[in-house]
Specification:
The chain is of the alpha+beta class. The chain has helices spanning 25-41, 47-60, 75-102, 108-137, 152-168, 174-185, 202-237, 243-277, 292-306, 314-327, 350-357; strands spanning 16-17, 19-21, 62-64, 67-71, 139-141, 144-148, 189-191, 194-198, 279-281, 284-288, 329-332. It has a domain at 82-200 and 339-367. The chain is globular, with a radius of gyration of 25 Å.
Length: 367
């Protein structure tokens, strides 16, 4: 009698969604040149309209599930936000000039420098929250706006406390600090009525950060010893290094620095995959496929474009980075997009302008 063997059907593959980018470097370069010319011609005033124009092009070329994103900010609101922030920095600059003139003390300079540092320690997290709130509020997909709903004062406490604890623990708290930043920024980011979420833990990356500190410190110490030996031999013995000795010294320096570069590419890839793998929206989770080899190829390609063109290839580099990110990122799992409804939030452009003043780039969360 033959037995009937029942085979269970394999589980269905998770539904995968990807972003795609349809832009190219040529049109972006044209926007860059136009913005540069008009900004110079208007003594900087057109900068805000140029910024909006570039973002509208980039977001308008991003597609998800057959529909494009849109950017709704205006140059006027960016200009007004900049004027508000300019007043604060003008006041801070005046105080740096007036206080030493009024307070004649040998400690005035040191205390003033400490005061400025403390001010910026509080201003930076305010800029991060304000910039994120504005950018998300002006971005939409299928007519539904994104939003950020975290309070600036809560992030200030997290940011200042994280810096203090990182200093007191000689850097050991840094992995937790970086993770806590994402635990605040991502869950407070929404698309309509649906929020993004993050379940990463700082302790998961603590060993990775310690390894990075040990490898970096050991490599730089070794390079420093080799350089010190070479300098000491020249100065104390009064003789130039022979070609053989010079080659023997240069080779370990080059190998050490190249090895350190490869290690950091590996580190960034591991961290990137972890951060994205812990980010989800509703029942769908992100997954990154970034690898050391791919990161190395991306950066090598950037150098081959930027160095010969003296930076003029920057628009093409921006396009490469966007496509690289989308090619290595997938959203897996069920997501009821039709159930998401509009829930727009008000936001001021002052935070965006504050981030501009500080030269602050938005934290790489990809939202």
């Amino acid at each position: 009698m033959n037995e009937v063997v029942a085979y269970a059907a394999p589980p269905p593959a998770p539904l995968a969604r990807r972003l795609s980018f349809h832009g190219s470097g040529g049109p972006l370069f044209g926007i860059f040149i136009r913005n540069l010319f008009l900004t110079i011609l208007t003594l900087g005033i057109y900068y805000f309209w140029g910024k909006v124009r570039a973002r509208r092009y980039i977001l308008g070329q991003v597609e998800f599930e057959g529909d494009r994103f849109a950017y709704h900010a205006t140059g006027r609101e960016l200009l007004l936000g900049w004027l508000k922030v300019a007043g604060f920095f003008a006041w801070l600059y005046v105080m740096q000039i007036v206080i030493p003139l009024v307070w004649k003390s040998p400690f005035a300079g040191a205390l003033l420098g400490l005061g400025v540092y403390v001010v910026f320690l509080f201003v930076y997290p305010i800029a991060i929250v304000g910039s994120r709130r504005f950018r998300l509020s002006r971005t939409s997909w299928r007519g539904i706006r994104f939003s950020f709903r975290g309070r600036a004062r809560d992030f200030v406490r997290l940011y200042v406390g994280g810096n203090v604890l990182t200093f007191l623990t000689f850097g050991l708290y840094y992995a937790h600090f970086q993770n806590n930043i994402r635990r605040f920024l991502i869950p407070h980011s929404h698309f309509g009525t649906t929020r993004f979420d993050y379940d990463g833990r700082g302790q998961d990356l603590l060993g990775l950060y310690i390894l990075a500190a040990v490898v970096t410190g050991a490599t730089l110490l070794g390079v420093g010893l080799v350089v010190g030996f070479a300098v000491g031999r020249v100065f104390f013995e009064g003789s130039l290094l022979s070609p053989a000795i010079l080659t023997g010294l240069v080779l370990p320096i080059v190998v050490g620095l190249l090895g350190l570069s490869v290690f950091w590419l590996w580190f960034l890839g591991v961290r990137h995959r972890y951060y994205w793998g812990r980010t989800f929206v509703s029942t769908a989770r992100f997954r990154s496929t970034v690898t050391t080899r791919r990161l190395a190829g991306l950066l090598a390609g950037d150098a081959l474009r930027l160095i010969p063109t003296l930076g003029l290839a920057w628009p093409w580099v921006v396009v490469r980075h966007i496509r690289f990110t989308f090619a290595n990122l997938v959203l897996e799992g069920p997501l009821d997009i039709e159930a998401i409804h509009q829930e727009a939030q008000a936001a001021s452009a002052a935070g965006e302008s504050l981030a501009d003043f500080l030269g602050l780039l938005d934290i790489d969360l990809g939202l």
